[in-house]
From TrEMBL:
GO terms for cellular component: plasma membrane. This is AI-2E family transporter. It comes from Candidatus Colimorpha enterica. One of its GO terms (biological process) is transmembrane transport. It is a multi-pass membrane protein. It comes from the Bacteria. Belongs to the autoinducer-2 exporter (AI-2E) (TC 2.A.86) family. The chain crosses the membrane at residues 12-29, 41-70, 90-113, 178-197, 260-293, 300-319, 331-364. It is found in: Cell membrane.
Length: 392
């Protein structure tokens, strides 16, 4: 009885503390968000370094496994230590990642700029077609023309280009700002390389630290939570990035085959937004519809059909193979995580809140199942009631 009272009192205190904490968080929502952002920017090189390591880990392990296979099949078993193979694997992975960034910056981004310039300069040409198509749908063409007549598209484009040039010149002149960005990127890259190079050492040090300061059962639980967190984040980011690259490449090929305009822009946008599960690729697809709609409304309808067909193939065949169960989270809770993360921290929040929610969901599910199992085992099994005399 005394133990039951203590347990109820403890549970009541925990519940009251949780209610007070949630209330305080809600009342100080803005302060909490700004405080977390300050901490994020303070440790941003380390956080970005962890993000880089999560993305580069699986490619590095693939290259490392390939070299280990070659070593096993060759006569270099004694002359080629595993540490050398790991160093070479990390170096090749980083070089490949930098080459991809260089390719995107040198070829894809200029094409995107050209495409957007073409969109703005061709609006006047496609303006009558858009008006005619909207009139067929039942809209009042005169009111639409009156609305559009107030917008000087050439002046809009001129203002945008002038401001963009001014911003670019200011950015080039701000040597200190550029140096800070380069320093932060370099620090993050170096930290990610350190993490990849010293994974075993970090694991060993973490186990020693937990063994020194916690009881064995507590240390085991903390290690389990840490392992679940690392695996969830690793599978999520590596799987989603690979999935985004595959999806963007497929759309680039398919849209080129059908002769759609703005192929590079649409493919890159779909690829980048596909990093966000469930809703990301639909955002990219909607942008593609708007871009093609200004060029040719009928092509926009065809684009929607092609987009939905590719999405069906991707969702049913490619996504399960590439990502699998990396996001161990029902769609409704993933959407909630995306909304909360987006409100608090924008796109970065959307990305990080999904694996965080997945970890919390898995821990809660395991705890609920364990408690139900314990309760079921504690219920005494009653012996069968013997039938009454004369009963059949």
């Amino acid at each position: 009885m005394k133990n039951d009272r203590k347990r109820r009192f403890r549970d009541g205190l925990i519940f009251a503390a949780a209610v007070i904490l949630i209330y305080a968080l809600i009342m100080n929502f803005r302060s909490l968000g700004s405080g977390i952002m300050r901490v994020f920017w303070l440790f941003s090189p380390l956080i970005i370094g962890i993000f880089f390591a999560l993305i580069l880990y699986k490619p590095m392990m693939t290259i490392n496994g390939f070299f280990l296979f070659l070593k096993k099949k060759s006569k270099l078993k004694k002359h080629l230590p595993d540490k050398v193979i790991k160093t070479v694997s990390i170096t090749l992975t980083v070089i490949f990642a930098l080459l991809v960034l260089f390719f995107v910056g040198n070829s894809v981004i200029p094409q995107i700029i050209v495409s957007f310039r073409s969109i703005f300069t061709s609006l006047d040409t496609y303006y009558p077609q858009i008006i005619g198509y909207l009139e067929k749908l039942g809209f009042d063409g005169n009111k639409i023309e009156e609305l559009f007549s107030k917008i000087d598209l050439s002046q809009v484009w001129k203002t945008l280009t002038d401001n963009a040039t001014h911003i670019w010149q200011t950015a080039v002149g701000a040597v200190n700002g550029i140096a800070n960005v380069l320093t932060g990127f370099t620090s993050a890259l170096i930290f990610s390389i350190y993490l990849l190079s010293n994974l075993e050492t970090l694991k060993r040090q973490t186990k020693k630290l937990l063994a020194a300061y916690f009881r064995p059962e507590t240390a085991k639980k903390i290690l389990g939570v840490g392992r679940l967190t690392v695996v969830t984040f690793l599978n999520f980011f590596s799987g989603q990035c690979l999935e985004a690259v595959i999806l963007g490449t497929i759309f680039f090929i398919v849209l080129n085959l059908f002769g759609f305009p703005y192929v590079t822009v649409i493919s890159v946008i779909i690829g980048f937004t596909a990093i966000i599960p469930y809703v990301g690729s639909f955002i990219g697809g909607a942008v593609g519809v708007l871009l093609i709609l200004m060029r040719d409304p009928m092509q926009a309808v065809l684009y929607i059909i092609v987009y939905l067909a590719v999405q069906q193939i991707e969702n049913n065949f490619i996504y399960p193979k590439v990502v699998g169960t990396a996001v161990n989270l029902p769609a409704i809770w993933a959407f909630v995580a995306i909304v909360i993360g987006g409100v608090l921290f924008g796109v970065v929040g959307m990305l990080f809140f999904i694996p965080m929610a997945s970890v919390l969901y898995t821990l809660l599910k395991n705890d609920v199942n364990a408690r139900l199992k314990k309760k079921a085992e504690s219920v005494p099994v009653l012996p069968p009631v013997p039938p009454a005399d004369g009963a059949e």
